[in-house]
Amino acid sequence: xxxxxxxxLEGNLTADPExxxxxxxxxxxxxTLAVNDRRLNENTGRWEDAGTVFHRVVVFNQQSxxxxxxxxxxxxxxxxxxxxxxxxxxxxTGQVRETRDVIADKVGxxxxxxxxxxxxxxxxxxxxxxxxxxxxxxxxxxGTGVAR
Length: 148
Fold this sequence. Notes:
By secondary structure, the chain is mainly beta. The chain is 6% helix and 48% strand. The protein is built from 1 helix and 6 strands, in the order ββββαββ. It has one helix spanning 62-70; strands spanning 5-13, 18-21, 27-41, 46-60, 76-89, 96-109. It has a 5-stranded mixed beta barrel. The radius of gyration is 24 Å and the shape is flat. The chain starts with a strand and ends in a 39-residue tail after the last strand. 11% of the residues are buried.
């Protein structure tokens, strides 16, 4: 059983997102989010950077394409997901190494210091995805009478 730790992160992308597909065909996007901790220095009364933590983020499926198309290096983003821990064996040294990734449920551009335009993507696939649907005229306009 894996431990899921829910997290919400706000930070800046350190590079453009990397998009790809796994062996099973599932699409993914990976990027690193730099989260800066700022603290008020009580002696000077000024805000100071108190350190940066880097988080590797992975997002899947249609959202991975949206992330790759929308976000770039330096952009501020908000990530909601689960912190997951893992391990692997380094091929060169044979040592077991630990990993920490955020598996994102939601990724969005932060509006704190930027304006964003939203272009909605259809939820359905295929030719009907952009269709407006059937149009019906009321019976009084269609030339038919209503008998009671």
